Amino acid sequence: MIKIGQYNTLEVIKLVDFGVFLNGGDDFGNILLPKNTVPAGTKLGDKLKVFIYFDSEDEVIATTDEPLVEVGGFAKLRIVGATTIGAFADWGLRKDLLIPFSEQRRRLEEGEEVMVRVYTDRASGRIVGSTKFNRFLDLTPANYKVGQEVQVIIAETTELGYKAVINGEHWGLFFKTEAFGKLFIGKQLKAYVQEIRPDGKINLSLQKVGLGKVDDLADKILTSLEIKGGFIPVSDKSSPDEIFRVFRTSKATFKKTIGGLYKKGLIIIEKDGIRLNDND
After folding, report:
1. Distance in angstroms between the alpha carbons of the first and the last residue of the chain
2. Looking at the DSSP assignment, which residues form a beta bridge with residue 12?
3. Which residues sit opposite 189 in a β-bridge?
4. How many other CB atoms sit within 10 Å of the CB of residue 113?
5. C-alpha span between 191 and 122 (Å, rounded)
6. 204 - beta bridge partners?
């Protein structure tokens, strides 16, 4: 079945001067792939990975251009125009993405960049965008486990920290204390479920939860010390930014980890750094 607003692999069934036609099945028939996006050397019977959407005439069309986001996904897009029916965003294709006024939490203006959720409007069948995320998220039970790795995209900032979309389905939150490093709207990254609260809300962490993150960091610190000749100019007195730059971790986790290594007699903590303990 052809999926509108997503990638499909379709067979070339006809060559014409202005492109090629692909087999869209009983539902869509022949789908045009315009000449300017046809891969060189394409021949009858080839199977091409194409993105299916609607052209300016609202006809189903294929392209090998790569959109910034598919239907069902979230992305940070630039607004390139505003009209009486809504705003238009550049999503990487020749036809811009419409964000109707009814799908805007506030009136969008040309030139700004906003997070957008792309979906297919049931009434018109058109691909459109929305900045009203709540009606797309938390619609199914969040069957996550503490410590589970998930994929997230940063969607909003709040007084508490950063709100993120988890696996395209649920809201999650990085508290400011967990949001070390460079987080920004639109950034996609992996994260870990830190806590599932009684009200169902999900707290996220950039690091593995519990002893796992400490054990991983301990190995990383010892390996780095060996590579650097036994000394690294980073200690528990260093700034959080410096610690994150070197070890990609929070200061709290770093202090806990080197404290454990010190108690085991594996390192010496000095004023200006840490050193491998070579004493037997």
Report:
1. 68
2. 22
3. 152
4. 13
5. 33
6. 193
